[in-house]
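Private note to self, pasted from the team thread so I don't lose it. Backbone tokens:
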């Protein structure tokens, strides 16, 4: 089992595209994923706010499936730590608290500026954008990572996606560098 541990901010789990590829890589034992009930609540709340036509039952199913697939991912017992932490956006303190209690090596977030190195260094935690994080995972074992990407793409059946359409989806999800690197081996996708 992977020992390198990543906690995912809500803005990462909000994106099904990013969540799918990240959790596929976690399933392949590239790293150990972590999140908290507060992080779940935040991505769900934001997803419903963005589009109130989302089916709440399907969202709850997604959350339960994530928790079932990774039974040690849900971090608890961090709540008392939230109020003693200091970050530029105080609403992000719960993420850092969960990262500390969950023994995370990295916080994966689109809001990298909200987690300055000076605030994370005392806890030996880094921060990475999901694009950077996934590129690093790919670098550990490109062939194994390619298989993860292929499994993700193969699940897209309604409608199926061509390699170009899949790469465009990665770009829309802000995985620009990953899409660029995968474009070089597009015929293998």
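Design output:
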């Amino acid at each position: 089992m992977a020992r390198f541990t990543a906690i995912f901010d809500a803005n990462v789990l909000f994106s099904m595209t990013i969540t799918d590829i990240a959790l596929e890589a976690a399933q392949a034992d590239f790293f150990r994923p972590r999140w908290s009930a507060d992080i779940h609540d935040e991505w769900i709340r934001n997803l419903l706010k963005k589009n109130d036509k989302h089916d709440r039952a399907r969202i709850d199913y997604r959350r339960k499936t994530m928790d079932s697939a990774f039974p040690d991912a849900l971090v608890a017992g961090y709540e008392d730590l939230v109020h003693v932490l200091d970050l530029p956006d105080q609403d992000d303190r719960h993420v850092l608290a969960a990262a500390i209690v969950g023994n995370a090596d990295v916080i994966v977030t689109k809001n990298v500026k909200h987690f300055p190195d000076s605030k994370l260094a005392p806890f030996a935690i880094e921060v990475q954008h999901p694009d950077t994080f996934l590129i690093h995972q790919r670098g550990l074992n490109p062939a194994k990572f390619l298989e993860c990407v292929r499994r993700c793409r193969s699940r897209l059946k309604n409608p199926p996606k061509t390699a170009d359409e899949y790469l465009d989806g990665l770009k829309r999800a802000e995985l620009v560098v990953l899409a660029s690197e995968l474009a070089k081996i597009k015929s293998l996708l």
